[in-house]
């Protein structure tokens, strides 16, 4: 059964393109993602079959510009589709986000940034080559950030380095919790360009697509986590890995400009959890109505305590949807302080409320809801991971909201 949309096109005034994309996403989720989701979680295995189907049906190119053969979706359209995917399979939606951001950041986002005409022409030629591999060969990209320090949160320069050599760069370093490790065809890493004459700076961040089969690339460690088990986020190690300059996903220095001028680029993890919040609520309604597959057709909706809990879940879900939809609608270059603060608030609300709704759903449905044969147990575990994810963890969002509410730019205390 194809569920109703998370964001009804008429109520949320979606464009015809958004309505069409989300309808197709719900169909794809019902046919492909939802039936397979238990397997990836049970095995902690990467959803490779899902990616083959996404390639066949065009989803790998959702944010590739139409002139390059993609769907040409903008930021909001992508987020709406990703929420529908997350509703069906959190691990697939979260890893797909890493892939899509390689095209979103190098595509419509960079089109909003400043660069001279020659640099822009070179960039568009390079990104078109990346896009051709995605659309033609089904190449999958990842986007590993974390290194175990403050770099992924934007506090310091990345410890992974790229030193210029003839024709490209030599990359050294490692990325931890690197989703798609061992399964992506290109690792879209963020290293710091190594310069002998100056200290490492965030301004020198590069964005390079490292071929997975390049000499010096290795994947280490095991993967047996609490939730999001299908992401396979093992550790990537780079030892004197040569990366051709034409493999750059952004021109040198542009990532730093993007991080300052397009901060909503860091909001793209949230759609998965918006979908999980909806999925937890959906399960609770089906279960209490006696309509959840795999359970007896027994209605449990007549108890006032359960009705009140459902009402609480509904209020929390609607509040979350409202602030999140507003935040992704406002995404663009050079947002106002208020808009950035709303993005932080939306990120925090989604990441915390998705798990709160899932926890309340388990308490309301009762012990049977904890069984691994039913999806709520997986949703509960998957939803717990969102608040921990860089670059905008729940704690960082609160820290920045408190600071920005009390200080204007440049203000300090004596």
Structure in words:
By secondary structure, the chain is an alpha/beta fold. It has three domains: 16-139, Acyl-CoA dehydrogenase/oxidase, N-terminal domain (Butyryl-Coa Dehydrogenase, subunit A, domain 1), CATH 1.10.540; 161-252, Butyryl-CoA Dehydrogenase, subunit A, domain 2, CATH 2.40.110; 262-406, Butyryl-CoA Dehydrogenase, subunit A, domain 3, CATH 1.20.140.10. 48% of the residues lie in helices and 10% in strands. It contains eleven helices and eight strands. The chain has a five-stranded mixed beta sheet, with no helix packed on it. A hairpin with a 2-residue loop joins strand 2 and strand 3. Helix 7 (270-288) packs parallel to helix 9.
Per-chain topology:
Layout: H1 16-43, H2 48-57, H3 75-88, H4 90-111, H5 117-137, E1 141-142, E2 161-165, E3 168-178, E4 186-189, E5 192-193, E6 208-211, E7 217-220, E8 234-244, H6 254-261, H7 270-288, H8 304-329, H9 337-365, H10 375-384, H11 394-406
Parallel strand pairs: 1-4, 2-5
Antiparallel strand pairs: 2-3, 3-8, 4-6, 7-8
Helix pairs in contact: 1-3, 3-4, 3-7, 4-5, 4-7, 7-8, 7-9, 7-10, 8-9, 9-10, 9-11
